[in-house]
Specification:
Blueprint (H helix, E strand, L loop, with lengths): L1 H18 L4 E8 L26 E4 L1 H4 L8 E6 L11 E8 L20 E5 H4 L10 E8 L8 E7 L2 E7 L7 E8 L4 E3 L1 E4 L2 E4 L8 E7 L4 E8 L8 E3 L5
Parallel strand pairs: 1-5, 2-4
Antiparallel strand pairs: 1-6, 2-5, 3-4, 3-6, 7-8, 7-15, 8-12, 9-10, 9-13, 11-12, 13-14
């Protein structure tokens, strides 16, 4: 019994450390204007961040953090650090919704903020101004990965056409960043989907007229299954709500 207990404690500690890490140093800038309208769309494919529930608490990640889109949907707590002239007290929690591209024409310490291997957040302007003054432009920050807290279930927006089902997955709780998706029609078995871009996942199977189920797996290895969350009469362009990580 003691051996089993020690194994469980060790395992839980390993899982916890994966997404409850210590503070890491980085830098932050801002973009998108005072109303954050310039942050809409983005490399994760979320489109209108207001209607998707992300609002202005969003960030574009540098190459080193974006991980070719696999970090889309992950959540970070950020606080301004070691710059008393510009920093404000407190911290923010943001969701990764975009990519901050490198600028190789500029040095890493003078405009090439998102160049590899730098860890950098390009925040929406409203959320940046909660931890630093506008005139700062760029500030040193500390960040840590935190669980995403969402209201309601995971959302599946079905785009594309017959034989090309492109499903945008949003509002994912827990780790937030989807790393694998499987789909099952009422007349098929489970089939793996492939990442098309951002958090858009594709299947080339003909699924018209079938109820659909999804299995979503995040970076921490946890999975949640939404059985028959899409009714058989679905149409392209519709959004459906499934289960959620708790």
């Amino acid at each position: 019994m003691a051996i089993v207990t020690m194994f469980l404690v060790g395992f839980l500690s390993l899982v916890s450390s994966a997404h409850c890490q210590g503070w890491i140093n980085a830098h932050a800038t801002f973009y998108g204007g005072g109303d954050a309208s310039g942050t809409m769309g983005g490399a994760c494919g979320y489109g209108n961040l207001y209607s998707q529930g992300y609002g202005t608490n969003t960030a574009a990640l540098s190459t080193a953090m974006f991980n070719s889109g696999r970090s889309c949907g992950s959540c970070y707590e950020i606080r301004c650090a070691k710059d008393p002239k510009w920093c404000l007290p407190g911290s923010i929690v943001v969701t990764a919704t975009n990519f901050c591209p490198p600028n190789n024409a500029l040095p890493n310490n003078a405009g090439g903020w998102c160049n590899p291997p730098l860890q950098h957040f390009d925040l929406s302007q409203p959320v940046f101004q909660r931890i630093a003054q506008y005139r700062a432009g760029i500030v040193p920050v500390s960040y840590r990965r935190v669980p995403c807290r969402r209201s309601g279930g995971i959302r599946f927006t079905i785009n594309g056409h017959s034989y090309f089902n492109l499903v945008l997955i949003t509002n994912v709780g827990g780790a937030g960043d989807v790393h694998a998706v499987a789909i099952k029609g009422s007349r098929t078995g489970w089939q793996s989907m492939s990442r098309n871009w951002g958090q858009n996942w594709q299947s080339n199977t003909y699924l018209n007229g079938q109820s659909l189920s999804f299995k979503v797996t995040t970076s921490d290895g946890r999975s949640v299954v939404s059985n028959n969350c899409v009714h058989a009469g679905w149409s392209f362009g519709q959004t459906f709500t499934g289960a959620q990580f708790h």
